[in-house]
């Protein structure tokens, strides 16, 4: 009787079902990954980098090359574009493999299919739904808007409007305070575009301080990092949400008075440390007031 060597692996393709990714580990930006595996074939890009950066590289380039999965082996990241019916993984010694689950729309494992209309009373549950809304911070009763001035050639600051004397952004003749929410996949994950500027809200790589990350709208439509633009709406109460950036797993919040930009503009950042936004006394809570989209 022949004995199998204890270190010998039998390479058998394991089909991946779309109903669940229960055996996968959730990584930064919502990726799903596993150690000691690979997805054979369907390579579109290969690049030398650390294992930790491979999944983020896939997120950052999916809008240009269609990356929806990746493998990392021996210092090399292999980006993949795999048809859903061909997604299978093989065991390896070392390395890792992972997917962007939202790029596999059929039966997305992060989509529970549960009806949340009891809380999301004015946000519909239809996929790819486009809605317009004013976004108001609960703690300060101030609306989010995109500034007139710019930060650099690619970025525009966003604030909440502090001045009650000059009215709320929702009362302005322009649409600087109006936002277009387009739901993607999974449910409750949105791109958030300023209606006036036609620029997407994003969390930058730049930190303002030790625990704060800067938030802008992105001015350059031909060059952007896709993962920074995804925002997940987590229901807090009726029409009120915590807004979390999917790339960094950080929540949007309005800073205290002492850190405001000026007397009429309050800075808006993401918080890089605490995840317990329910304890923030409303600075991390946002009312989404839906309205008719402009023609």
Q: Name the shape in a single word.
A: elongated
What do we call the CATH topology of the largest domain?
Answer: Trefoil (Acidic Fibroblast Growth Factor, subunit A)
What percent of the residues sit in helical stretches (DSSP H or I)? under 10%
Helix-strand string: EEEEHEEEEEEEEEEEEEEE
> What are the segments in which pLDDT stays under 50 over at least 5 consecutive residues?
1-19, 106-127
Q: How large, in whole angstroms, is the Cα Rg? A: 21 Å
Largest sheet: 12 strands, antiparallel
Provide the CATH top-level class of the largest domain. Answer: Mainly Beta
How many beta-strand elements?
Answer: 19
Number of helices: 1
Overall mean pLDDT: 77
Task: Tell me the number of structural domains.
Answer: 2
Give the N-terminus to C-terminus distance in angstroms. Answer: 77 Å
Helix vs. strand class? mainly beta
CATH architecture of the largest domain: Trefoil
The fraction of residues assigned to DSSP E strands is 35-45%
Organism: Daphnia magna
InterPro entries: Ricin_B-like_lectins
Signal peptide: 1-19
Protein name: Apple domain-containing protein
Please give a structural write-up.
The protein is mainly beta. The chain folds into 2 domains: 23-103, Hepatocyte Growth Factor, CATH 3.50.4.10; 130-291, Trefoil (Acidic Fibroblast Growth Factor, subunit A) (Trefoil), CATH 2.80.10.50. 5% of the residues lie in helices and 40% in strands. It contains 1 helix and 19 strands. Strands 8, 9, 10, 11, 12, 13, 14, 15, 16, 17, 18 and 19 form a 12-stranded antiparallel β-sheet that branches. Strands 1, 2, 3, 4, 5, 6 and 7 form a 7-stranded antiparallel β-sheet that branches. The model is unreliable at 1-19 and 106-127 (pLDDT under 50).
């Amino acid at each position: 009787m022949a004995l199998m060597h204890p270190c010998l692996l039998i390479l058998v393709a394991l089909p991946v079902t779309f109903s669940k990714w229960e055996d996968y580990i959730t990584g930064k930006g919502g990726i799903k990954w596993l150690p000691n595996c690979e997805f054979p074939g369907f390579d579109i890009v290969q690049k030398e980098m650390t294992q930790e950066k491979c999944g983020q590289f896939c997120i950052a380039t999916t809008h240009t090359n269609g990356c929806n999965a990746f493998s990392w082996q021996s210092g090399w990241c292999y980006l993949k574009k795999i048809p859903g019916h061909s997604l299978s993984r093989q065991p390896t010694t070392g390395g890792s493999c992972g997917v962007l689950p939202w790029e596999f729309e059929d039966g997305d494992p992060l989509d529970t299919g549960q009806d949340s209309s009891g809380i999301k009373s004015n946000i519909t549950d239809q996929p790819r739904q486009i809605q317009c809304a004013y976004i108001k911070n609960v703690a300060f009763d101030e609306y989010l808007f995109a500034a007139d001035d710019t930060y650099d050639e690619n970025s525009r600051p966003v604030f909440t409007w502090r001045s009650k004397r000059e009215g709320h952004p929702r009362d302005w003749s322009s649409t600087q305070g109006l936002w277009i929410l387009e739901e993607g996949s999974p449910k409750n994950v949105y791109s958030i575009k300023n209606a006036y500027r036609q620029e997407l809200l994003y969390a930058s790589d730049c930190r303002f301080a030790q625990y704060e990350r800067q938030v802008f709208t992105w001015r350059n439509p031909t060059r952007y990092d896709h993962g920074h633009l995804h925002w997940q709406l987590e229901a807090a109460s009726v029409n009120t949400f915590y807004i979390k950036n999917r790339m960094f797993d950080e929540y949007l919040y309005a800073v205290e008075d002492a850190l405001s930009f000026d007397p009429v503009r309050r800075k808006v950042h993401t918080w890089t440390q605490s995840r317990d936004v329910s304890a923030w006394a409303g600075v991390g809570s946002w009312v989404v007031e839906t309205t008719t989209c402009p023609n």
